[in-house]
Amino acid sequence: MSLFVRKIVCFVLVGYLLSACSNTRHLATGEQLYTGSKVQITDNEADKDVLKILKKDIGGLVRPVPNSKTLGLIRTKLTIYKMAGKKEKAKGVRRWMRNKAGEAPVLVSSVLLKTNKELIENFLQNRGFFNAKVAAKIDTAGKRKMIANYSITTGKQYMVKWAYLMDDTAAIVTAIRQDFDKTLLHSGHAYNLDVIKAERERISRLLKEKGYYYFKADYLLVIADSAIGGDMVNMYVQLKKEEIPAEAYRKYVINDVYIYTNYKLKNNAQDTSKKGKIAFDNYYIIDEKKAYKPEVFSQAMIFEKGDVYSMDDQNTSLSRLVNMGNFKFVKNRFEANGDSLLDVYYYLTPYPNKSLRFEAGGLTQNDNRAGTRGSVSWRHRNAFRGVEELMMKVNGGFEGQYSGPVKQPNIYSIGAEAGLSVPRFILPFVQVYTPGRYLPRSMAKVKYNFESSTKLINISSYNATLGYSWREGARKEHQLYPINFTYVNTDTVGSPELSGISYGNLVYNGIIIGPTYEFTYNSQSGTANKHTLFFSGRIDLSGNLLGLAQKADYENNPQSLFGSPYAQYIKLQPDLRYYLRLSSSAVLATRLMAGIGVPYGNSAALPNIKQFWAGGNSDMRGFPSRLLGPGTFNEYDTATNRSYIQTLGDMKLEFNVEWRQHIYKFLNGGVFADLGNIWLYRDNPAFPGGKFTPDFYKQLAAGVGVGLRIDLKILVLRLDMGMPVRKPWLAENHRWVIEKIAFADPDWKKKNLIFNIAIGYPF
Hints:
Elements: H1 3-25, E1 33-41, H2 48-61, H3 76-83, H4 92-101, H5 113-126, E2 133-142, E3 145-153, E4 159-165, H6 171-177, H7 193-209, E5 220-225, E6 232-239, E7 253-260, E8 278-280, E9 283-286, H8 311-323, E10 327-336, E11 341-350, E12 354-365, E13 369-380, E14 389-401, E15 411-422, E16 441-453, E17 457-472, E18 476-492, E19 501-502, E20 510-513, E21 516-522, E22 531-542, H9 544-550, E23 560-561, E24 564-565, E25 569-583, E26 586-599, E27 643-644, E28 651-664, E29 667-679, E30 701-711, E31 716-726, H10 746-752, E32 754-759
Parallel strand pairs: 1-3, 4-6, 7-9, 7-11, 19-27
Antiparallel strand pairs: 2-3, 5-6, 8-9, 10-11, 12-13, 13-14, 14-15, 15-16, 16-17, 17-18, 18-20, 18-21, 21-22, 22-25, 23-24, 25-26, 26-28, 28-29, 29-30, 30-31, 31-32
């Protein structure tokens, strides 16, 4: 063990001992510190995996919770509390140390053994251990430290033999019986009170789907009969007839539906007037200001007069109204109208129609560039009385290099855009209705952007798109833009003083025209599962049919559209991410991303705005921003000593893995490794070694690093330090450079350590 490591170990041990002493020496006479509980199960009647879960659950059940430890070693908060002293009226830093950063000692006198014993026994009974026995006592854990010991004998865990629905002639029981084969009370499973509660909720939801609006889970009783012997129970489901009101037995049908478009929260919903109601389709609209066209609500209203009440239809209507994006609050209520009719009332509180928004922010790149961006946007949420969202925006930015061996030009940008989003499909000659809780959106946008690299190049781009976005539930989303037109014009204004800068790979003049489609799947939505997935797949096409019709060939028969050349390519971009939750405070995140661009016909390469790059604060973090690759090409080691603004490729492959660990409150840590590169589809003399070949796997770059993430709730500030461990531009047998790491060498650190500042996680 090195001297440095030994010093660190000694420091931690000394700190631990000092902390341990300070934790108890300030206690009053007779006081003892409670350091936690120990759960011991002294029999082997239950399965080992079941016992392991029981110990964990019981450990989290007993109270009080002992003083927390940092890294499982030192009671840092308790130490800070003691350092603050005993002054009750302490102010300033001392008060903050006691009440915020510190933690008062948890004393053994606060442990209620009898209460915890009863709590554990009740918990075990609810898990099917009907004959469990619990003994509790306080034991010594050290000088002036005590621990609570809980010794448990579980006995046999009772299992479910059969589940029965009690015979009854009521129509509501017949409705339950139709789906009782879906019961959660499975034969052979352990008795579990939580499962019984879930079964009652399942039946209640089932009945609400069949029109029984007033039925509740509390109207059901599940009786467990353990007298059958053999450590088994029979489960009997029946109605609590003496508690069920008459209306809970009735199946309800929708009568009238009322929509209030300008409801104020201070109003009493019960007293809302129906004055001025307008009948449209199968509902009534109360809209005194005539702010909305009546047909706007057709897709949102699932209920129709005469429909049997369904809770799913109710939730779908509410979700669709919210997804219109025009209403701040949406709520509804039902009112019985006769013996079996329900009137439905929807109360919508709109956002202000018009809003103005200012945004400003900074940015950094890991190659010593920094800059600022800002925008002003205006939005109208109901532009044409059909909840259409009209948006107009102007933006600008600046990016400059404040240090570095090669001076890159400053970049200025300015742009403007206008967009219209409508919460429904707009298609010629046809109406499309989509099921589910999410409304589709039709979107149109026009955009202009001007970017100037000082004394080098000016790029103007014009873009117009028309497309659709729709969701299949909470996890699946589709975006299709059948019309996508971009025109790019580049002016080269090269200056003698920047003659060493190479920008030829950024010059593109022409048209990009073709559809795009993107599918996204995200299993993280609304879950905290151990395993979650994210997938995004994008298809981008340009000039395909046009190029085929004109028999375009960039070498022998180049073609144009409106007097300008057009791009012809096929581009695929899948992105797969997998997250493994290792514990409540640790996650292993991985990403596999690929990009395949095939230029053909009218194009020798993808337009630069469609190409891939590698390196940067959310990519290959151990390499300079957008300057890794292509292939074995190295921007810094070229024979002509040219300096590129950025290097790009037609293909990309990247794999990332990152361990994310919560450290303390708002502070999280990360350890990461990145592997990847970019390549060209065809040879380019300016980038020797850049073409994709079957030996691409030998040309992968690799980087590793560590980082801190400051979670400020409204955003996450990410600070990462990366370095390369594999450089693909070196000779084939010398590309791994792990043995050359030299943290003590200033020159090595300057060339290899890359500091990244970013907002949000990289994936």
